[in-house]
Every structure is written in structure tokens, then in C-alpha cells.
Design goal:
This protein is α/β, with parallel strands linked by helices. It has two domains: 230 residues, Phosphoenolpyruvate-binding domains (TIM Barrel), CATH 3.20.20.60; 40 residues, no CATH class. The chain contains twelve helices and eight strands. Helix 5 packs across helix 6 and helix 8 packs parallel to helix 9. The radius of gyration is 23 Å and the shape is elongated. The chain starts with a helix and ends with a helix. The model has no long low-confidence stretch (mean pLDDT 97). Bound molecules: 3-methyl-2-oxobutanoic acid. The site of 3-methyl-2-oxobutanoic acid (KIV) has 10 residues, from strand 6. 3-methyl-2-oxobutanoic acid binds next to strand 6.
């Protein structure tokens, strides 16, 4: 049985830190799931790391459903949360419910959406019909990009107060956890102490109840943006390029394929074939 929303809530009570990693495809999701990571997040960051968009704005519901289906085929142990993409929940509560339902049908256990107090009614409506919601405040890539760009949030008393209020309101609306993206670590710590649900930090310091990273950042596979907060555990892109260069040379020089990589007819059948075609 895979982890449930209740298991994630219990981890805060038991003071156990929660690990979250983004996943978008079957192969990597299988490995993430096997590693004991608590939550697989089908983030709309897929638009950037999987599809090559400049930001998350162009991501569609169809794309999110496809990524969610692939990850759900791989998932055995972790909780699976999927992002509602830009404009799939902002225009109306009806949109939000319909699109949350699509992600659940695609295999998600819960959905995530960006926004503070402005999203309270939408969140309550989704939670009321029985779909668990993860909130996301601080830097909200779907909309921050339209105004101020990628900046640390909660550096002044007033912006900090707004974040703390947003977190409390999201809790009241019924979210089971909240992502805090690029929030100053002091404010992230205060929010984590204030709310009874787990906070999941990304670039928000060690006092959050859990941490999330984009899997390509962790593995060193995405070189276009290298955020300060993303610890690289390996440099996979270097290893991949090196391996591909060797493959290219092997093909050029006929070192690959070798006998162990191909299949043969039996001698008798080959003899008959040669006789028939006269070679
Ligand atoms: O889309 C995403 O990957 C996210 C995480 C960075 C939290 O929302």
C-alpha cells in the first residue's frame, strides 16, 4: 500500500521530515518511488524540464494528465500529488473541481495549486468534494513571473505577515500541506511552527517540515537554470554526454554492436537461404 495523505500529516506530529521529489516519467518515477521518497510531485515544472518551455505558463491539463498517468504506473510506495497548471483553476470553482477530478482520474492522490487567501474558496470547494489539496505560497511561478520575476519572498515585516496569514487561511480552507517556495528561512520557520499541517520548503531553509527538489536539479541534468537552493547530488548531464560521445564513436568505428548484441540464424537455415537466393 502506498503512503496516504494521513501518513504525511502524521509525519509532522511524529516530527519526521518529509521528502518530496518531482517526477514526470515512468523510468525516473520508478527509481524515485523505490528510494523511499515520501511524495512524488508531478509538478508543472515539467513544462520547463521535460518540454523546454521558458516557464510554467504554457503547461496544459492534457500534458499534466499524461505525466500523471506515467508516474502513477510507476508509483508503488509514495504519495502522488499533481499540479493544477496555470488557468486550470483560477477562472472558476467549476474549472478547479473538474480539472482536479481529471488529475485524480489520471492517478494522483491529491492536487496542488498556487495562491494564498485569494484561493481559499476554491480550495474549500475542492476539499469539500473529497479531493486533498496541497497549497503553494511564497514564490508562485505561474504568476510571479508575470510581475516581479523570481525573488525571495517574505523579507519585510509586512510581506512576512501576509505569508503567515495566507498559511493560516490555507490551513483553515483544508489543505493537508503547504509548499513554501523561496520564503526567507525565518518566516518559513515561523509558518512551520504556527500551522498544524506540514510545510514543504523549496529554497526556504531547514525549519520546514519537509523539502522538495526538482529531480533534474538534484541529479544535475538541467543546466538552463541553476537555483542557489538546489543541491546537486551528482552531475548526470556530464555522464550522459560522455556516454553518448562514446556511443557515437563506437558506431562510427563499428565497435558497436558486437556479437553479444545481435541475433543469428542457425547454420542449416542460413545454408538453405543462401542456396535459394544463390549467394
Ligand atoms: O512545479 C514544481 O515542480 C513545483 C515545486 C518546485 C514545488 O511546484
Amino acid at each position: 500500500m502506498h503512503k496516504t495523505v494521513q501518513d504525511i500529516l502524521n509525519m509532522k506530529k511524529e516530527k519526521k521530515k518529509i521528502s518530496v521529489i518531482t517526477s514526470y516519467d515512468y523510468t525516473l518515477a520508478s527509481l524515485c518511488d523505490k528510494s523511499g521518497i515520501d511524495v512524488l510531485l508531478v509538478g508543472d515544472s515539467a513544462g520547463m524540464v521535460m518540454l523546454g518551455y521558458e516557464n510554467t505558463i504554457p503547461v496544459t491539463m492534457n500534458q499534466m494528465c499524461m505525466f500523471t498517468e506515467a508516474v502513477s504506473r510507476a508509483r508503488k510506495n509514495s504519495l502522488l500529488v499533481s499540479d493544477l497548471p496555470f488557468m486550470s483553476y483560477q477562472a472558476s470553482i467549476e474549472d478547479a473541481i473538474n480539472n482536479s477530478g481529471k488529475l485524480i482520474k489520471a492517478g494522483a492522490d491529491a492536487v496542488k495549486l498556487e495562491g494564498g487567501s485569494v484561493m481559499v474558496k476554491t480550495i474549500s470547494a475542492i476539499v469539500d468534494i473529497g479531493i486533498p489539496v496541497m497549497g503553494h505560497i511564497g514564490l508562485q511561478p505561474q504568476t510571479t513571473i508575470l510581475s516581479e520575476g523570481y525573488k525571495v519572498q517574505g523579507k519585510t515585516k509586512d510581506t512576512a505577515m501576509k505569508l503567515i496569514e495566507d498559511a493560516k487561511e490555507l490551513q483553515e480552507a483544508g489543505v493537508f500541506s503547504i509548499v513554501l517556495e523561496m520564503v526567507s528561512h525565518e518566516v518559513a520557520g515561523i509558518i512551520s511552527e504556527t500551522v498544524g499541517i506540514p510545510t514543504i520548503g523549496i529554497g526556504s531553509g531547514v525549519d520546514c517540515d519537509g523539502q522538495v527538489l526538482v529531480v533534474q536539479d538534484l541529479l544535475g541534468m538541467y543546466d538552463k537554470i541553476k537555483p542557489k537552493f538546489a543541491k546537486r547530488y551528482m552531475n548526470l548531464s556530464e555522464d550522459i554526454v560522455k556516454s553518448l560521445e562514446i556511443f557515437q564513436k563506437d558506431v562510427e568505428s563499428s565497435v558497436f554492436p558486437a556479437t553479444e548484441h545481435w541475433f543469428s540464424m542457425n547454420d542449416e537455415e542460413l545454408k538453405k537461404l543462401r542456396e535459394q537466393i544463390g549467394s
